[in-house]
Amino acid sequence: MWFKDPLFYFHIAGIGGLWGLYYVYNLDRVPITHRWRFNTVSQHHEKQLAQRLVRDVLDNGDSTILPDSSSEHTTVQRVFDRLVPAAGLVDTDWEVHVIDDPNTMNAFVLPGGKVFIYTGMLHLCSSDDELATILSHEIAHNICRHGSESVSRTLLWVPGFVISSLASGLDPDLVEVGMDVAFRYPNSRVHEREADYVGLLLMAESGYDPSAALNWWKTMEEVKAREVVSYMSTHPGHHNRLEQFYAWLTDARTRKLGRRCSGEVDSPTVSVAATDYLRRRRVSVLLLPSTRSVRPWGCCRACRLRLEHTGKHHVQRSTATE
User: Fold this and answer.
1) Are 141 and 193 within one domain?
2) Residues annotated as part of the active site
3) pTM of the model
């Protein structure tokens, strides 16, 4: 038998060692949360993959994309424009698409900044703050590059799936379910929790009320009363999400009061690029002479009073064309 070969275990050890070096070499950290993760997909390949996926969605005859002039798209774009500068990814080729399907409550983002939201979910939002909860979550997926991480992990699971099927002699469908429960679903739930946390900080940075996330997930808990058992789902349960948001809310409020009321955005990736992005979107910006940093519009009342008192102009929506 092949496993009785005296060199067999040396071969296994050698392959395992090479695989371990490859795994460690491709480890990097997720922005903001600093979680270690395996990622082999470059941003260039990520954009190529995104282009194919976007074409598939847009060419799908079952999906009706609302025009940019529709009230739904205008609402989503307004909130989205306020979130992007705080994300520090204004150089990304962002696109927002609203899919006209009142029976579907979903939103998703594709690598490269292509965001899709269904009218079924949009109509559940009672305020811009709740809509910001959804959009900031999707932007956070892009910040953390969860799409490329999922593709990279699939490259690890496929060999394991094949070896497990051959070695066990079990039905491949059964082995696939086992791999999903053991690896794919838990990793997906990690991505969702990470996007929840980063998205909450992002909406606080943009001047939205982070407590609106609690109202939104309470609504989702009522609408989707029957849920799949968490370990068989790619998403955390709504109740678990509510508990997490309660725990994170203090951090988000502190960030909103501290960062927003300081009149500055300290991320060096935001300043110049954010100005260009906001001007392209016809949003005027505030440039502080001392730091040349950019502050997205929508500051709190205390900040507006302070800025007016010091002779600085607060940010407002501009109706002038470029």
Assistant:
1) yes
2) 138
3) 0.74
